[in-house]
Amino acid sequence: MDETMFGRALSELRGSMPRITAASAESGRLIVVSNRVAPIEEGQPTAGGLAAGVLDALREKGGLWIGWSGDIADGGSRLQPERQKGRVRLQTLDLAQPDYDAYYRGFANSALWPVLHYRSALARFSRADYAGYQRVNGMFATAVAAKLEPDDVVWVHDYHLFGLAAALREAGASNRLGIFLHTPFPAPAVFMTLPVHSDLARSLCQYDLIGFQTEPDRRAFEDYILREADGHIMPGRALMAFGRVVRTGVYPIGVQAEEIRRQAEPLADCAQMSRLRASIGASRLIISVDRLDYSKGLAERFLAYERFLEANEERRGSVTFLQIAPPSRSDVESYREIRVGLEREAGRINGRFSELDWTPVRYLNKGFARQTLMPMFARADVGLVTPMRDGMNLVAKEYVAAQDPRDPGVLVLSQFAGAACELKSALLVNPHDPDEVAEALEQALSMSLDERRERHAEMMTALRRNSLSAWRDRFLADLGARR
Ligand code: F6P
Prior knowledge:
Blueprint: H1 3-16, E1 30-36, H2 50-61, E2 63-73, E3 78-79, E4 83-85, E5 88-96, H3 97-116, H4 127-147, E6 153-157, H5 164-170, E7 176-180, H6 188-191, H7 197-204, E8 209-212, H8 215-228, E9 232-234, E10 238-241, E11 244-250, H9 257-264, H10 271-280, E12 284-289, H11 298-311, E13 319-324, H12 333-353, E14 361-364, H13 370-379, E15 382-385, H14 394-402, E16 410-414, E17 427-429, H15 434-445, H16 449-465, H17 468-480
């Protein structure tokens, strides 16, 4: 590891730290740190998910959001001047190419991401990348420290920033620091394939609260701490490890169901929807929307759809599978490979089954605005969401929320998506079995209206229970509570 650079980041950090006193009650300001920050325009709807939840919290309480600007800087990494957007202050960091390569493209997305998604065989670990990851975590810590006041509460997001609390603690911060992991946390044996697993776990234990999407994720982390880090269970879902007490909790991220339904309703007014309707006519529609990522199980899903067409000859010509897959992380090798493979598969299936007036697969390599996607979800008879592993999968929840309760579509959902812990009335499938997914597709397309309504109502109850605001409020309440 590049000790000098990390050391330099830390000593800068020490110099810039305010005097820290014991954290008081719930009065502190909120500082959010995440790799990406959402573009903020007052009064405009946000991109959804994390962005919407975090932004609402910041708007209500007022506060600061720190993250990567999305830009690569010529020369060294550097902080942009702080900007004020309504009650929210934004502080972004431009990353120099070597920092971006080692931190984002390297350790975070070529080593940690595959391991967290149970794909150790795809992980490409290098010590230099890990040093870069720590270095950039140190830079984020420096940015936080420069603004930190004694009562501030810091809410960190995701796998890019496991090392942030450790850097802040080393500099003397005793503030309440919490991290929410949006991805799965794998079984200990899988996590241990990362050569720096112990260092990462030690860093995580510098937080006061670690939030997970599901109980199996939380338990996997607890198992690791108990069995591999010599830790102990303490009262209140807390763990004692590496000389600290850290609380853990389960906070399934949710959606704003009412807003989604509103966006989904004006089917006729949307130009893109009119084009879709004109081109598919009365055809039954199966929809999938995913970032182009191997964890999403796209190749396996294409195969399952092919099995469905083989097994249900009478459906040919009257069903369309629409796969929307905007490219993602395309400068990482494994992501380039998946794109090539999927283009080949879509072409092969279409070549095999297409007729003059029917194309079975529509594969679109681009993204759509939420205002367009939600009406598409409402029109689709089936939402096909079959990741091989996923922290939560908000598309599954958005598909359910977008449905007309009087005539809802059916969700076919992977048992390995975090959402499956809540959406038990979906048709749950194992994405490793293409025949099972094909059968679920046929079951979904032939399901009675009564059964569709019943399943949809049950899933809506779950969505309302774990709304986006409940996720945010519960995490912040637990983080803010006195220890
Ligand atoms: O699932 C984890 C996550 O950080 C999501 O919050 C987000 O949708 C996605 O990964 C973003 O990927 P990237 O920032 O690499 O484009």
